[in-house]
Amino acid sequence: MAPSTSPRESPHTSKAETTAEAEQIGSQRTQLLCILTVVLVASSLWIHGQTYQGTAQLHALMELLATLIAAFSAVLAYLRYYARRNSSFMFLCLATGLLATSCLDTYHIVISSFLLTSDSLAAATTHWSWNASRFLLATVMIFCWIASRADLKRQTPMFPEWLVYVGITNFTLLLGISFFVLELPSAWFPDAAVSRPLELLSGILFATALSGFLYLKTWRTESFSFWLVCSLLISTTCQLLVMPRSSNFFDADFEWAHLLKTLSYLAILIGLLIDIYQLHRAIDQAAASLDHANHRLRESEERFALASEGSANGLWDWDVQSNQVWYASRFWRMLGYQGPAYPSSVLDSFNRHLHPDDFEKTWAAVDRHLHQGETFDVVYRLKHLSDGYRWFRARGVANHSADGKPVRMSGSIQDITAARQAEHQLKEKSLDLQRSNEELQQFAYVASHDLQEPLRAIAGYGSLLQRFHAEQLSNEGQEYLDFTIDGAKRMQSLINSLLDVSRVRTHGKTFQPIDLNEIVHTASNNLAAQIRETEATVHITNLPVLKGDSSQMIQLFQNLMSNAMKFRQQDQKPHLVIQAEEQSDDWLISISDNGIGIDPQFHNRIFTVFQRLHTREEYSGTGIGLAICKKVVERHRGQIWLESQNGAGSTFYFSISKHLQDQLQSDGENESDLLT
Ligand code: ADP
After folding, report:
1. Quick one: which atom of ligand 1 is closest to the CA of 628?
2. Within 13 Å, how many C-alpha atoms sit on residue 283's CB side?
3. Dist CA 241 CA 244 (whole Å)
4. Can you tell me which atom of ligand 1 is nearest the CA of 652?
């Protein structure tokens, strides 16, 4: 649930809109200041001619009101300064200045209320005490302007806090005491055009501060600055236009000046109240967005915790500087721990679980990642609570501070023990296979040489017996001898065929680009006698150039073409069609014939060694041709199959991979399926 967003905070409020709004407020304030100036000047000029005469009580009341406002404003300004970190130093100057002014104003009330008689010394003191308060505030306003200017330029204050207190207090005391110690001259010349020339001094200081603030232009955007400028405008008018021309106590100028002084304090008070209100609003909004951010943070944390629980990995986060590590609970559960017993969140916990033999390589990898930016991806063993060491794959990534120091590193571990075991078993199996392959090769050697020898002897001596001693044998004996010789020869042929199958993988050549048109041409040449004898026609569509073992390809085509002619229909001349089709990953080759066809139930069987569907009397052969074809195709990463019906011709298909490498494809192949 997202908290509602006020228009002021709306993210859709563009910067341009905000600037336009600020511009509008700025020009409204300019107009207000112009109007205020005109009103102040006009009213001050008008009042000068008036014959109004006030009273001492009214004067005392106005001074009291001004003093209270100044004191209250001072308290607010202190609050404003101390309630916030990095508050403007101006508020401290203003608060202390207003407090000092209210002290001097109090002093002025006392003097003017109790001592104001015809006594000229007391009258002079009254003038001086009023002037002291005005002078002090005008001076403080200059310092406020300096502090504001420093704020704007983001400079640190030029003087410490204590100096503000000590400086203003001493200045105030100095002004107060001087009335008693010094014999002050009269500051009032009733007959002169400017009856109170001393007022002009504070007037000039107020005017200077006013010009300074106007020049800073902060009043266009900040409410408090605007009200401060209003206050300075009132004070400047009071000190330059009104009070200097008051020729008597309580005359119209005198009373108007006192009212203006009170109004100038009031302007500061209003400015402070608005500023504090706006500050409060801003804090409120900040708190609301903080709440919102907290809510989202909580949500994101929950999501993260859930994802971490649901993931098969154990997450960790290492604060490189403090060496503290955060481990997701899944991390420790992967090592057999249960909730309350999780090891502590320090790096030592991890090190204690790390296999001693993996320690060095792991930390070297971490070091290379942190300082050379190498990818961190290592495999190590961690001690399981009850199951010895288990294998883990750890990956992680670090981030660095601006000066390149590693700050934190986060990542995960993945249990790969099962995969490692499977890999190990695979290796064992592969070694077993290699061993059995070697044994098989030895067997092939024995079969080709040692077994053939006695067979040759049987066949050879049988033939000799037949040639030179046949007449000594009965007809029956001769028949037995024929069987013996024939059996021995067949045995020889079977062994040779068997060896041919095994040699497909062990005696293969490297794969090279070969033109299948040439291959088929060579195979046809080798089968020329059979083609001639059976009057076969061979139709070849354009065949591709592909990678393969040329000798084996010739053998493959030769076997398939030979079968197509051998298993022909008695009343038809064989017709063969050889074509190729390109597919995404391989070439699909087909050889069709119009022969006797094969019942679908035998389609798989015929690719097995020695599997024949006819007797030797019907069709010659050993039943090894298609088994060799299958081995050749498999070595070329392809498959072989057929489509055929009894009596309806056959189409043999085989695929040859397009992605064969140049190297010899015989390494470690399993020969044990030779007889399956
Ligand atoms: P062989 O040709 O020595 O008998 P093969 O392995 O080449 O051995 O073939 C196995 C059997 O598959 C053959 O005996 C035959 O029954 C059947 N065969 C193979 N090719 C064809 C074909 N083109 N038409 C019909 N039958 C076939």
Report:
1. 6
2. 9
3. 7
4. 23
Closest-CA residue to 348 (of 370, 331, 376, 325) = 325
Mutation test of ligand 1: which of 496, 612, 645, 653 has the most ligand atoms closer than 8 Å to its C-beta?
612
Identify the helix (H) or strand (E) that includes residue 589.
strand 586-592
Residue ID of nearest Cα to ligand 1 atom 1: 623
The DSSP bridge pattern shows strands 324-327 and 537-540 to be unpaired
Low-confidence ranges of the chain (pLDDT < 50): 1-13, 118, 663-676
> Three-state DSSP class for 58?
helix
With tokens 């001619």, the residue in question is 49
- For atom 13 of ligand 1, the residue with the nearest CA is 612
So what's the pLDDT on residue 55? 87
Query: Measuring from atom 19 of ligand 1, which residue has the nearest CA?
Result: 563
Q: Whose CA is nearest to atom 25 of ligand 1?
A: 597
**Ligand 1 centre and the CA of 557: distance in Å?**
14
Residue nearest to atom 8 of ligand 1 (CA): 623
Strand order in the sheet with 324-327: 324-327, 314-319, 406-415, 389-400, 376-383
Atom of ligand 1 nearest to the CA of 626: 6
Nearest CA to ligand 1 atom 23: 564
pLDDT of residue 340: 67
Which residues form ligand 1's pocket by a CB distance below 6 Å? Answer: 559, 563-564, 567, 593, 595-598, 606, 612-614, 621-627, 650
DSSP notation for 358-396: HHHHHHHHHHHHHHH---EEEEEEEE-SSS-EEEEEEEE
Judge contact between 159 and 88, C-beta under 8 A.
Answer: no
H or E segment and range at residue 138:
helix 120-152
- What is the amino acid identity at position 355? H
620 CA → ligand 1 middle, Å: 10
Amino acid letter, residue 427: K
Long-range contacts at 1-6 (CB < 8 A, ≥ 24 apart): 1/295, 2/292, 3/288, 3/291, 3/292, 3/295, 6/285
CA of 600 to the centre of ligand 1 (A): 13
**Whether 665 contacts 635, CB under 8 Å:** yes
* pLDDT tens digits along 266-304: 999 999 999 999 999 998 999 999 999 999 999 988 888
What was the pLDDT predicted at 3?
35
Structure-token match 């700025």, residue found:
26
Q: Whose CA is nearest to atom 18 of ligand 1?
A: 563
Rounded CA-CA distance 31/38 in Å is 11
> H helices within 376-474, ranges in order?
417-445, 452-469
Which amino acid, one-letter code, is at 207? A
pTM surpassing 0.70?
Answer: no
Cα(313)–Cα(536) distance, integer angstroms: 67
DSSP state, 159? S
Report CA(624)–ligand 1 centroid distance (Å): 9
Rounded distance, CA 597 to CA 64, Å? Answer: 127
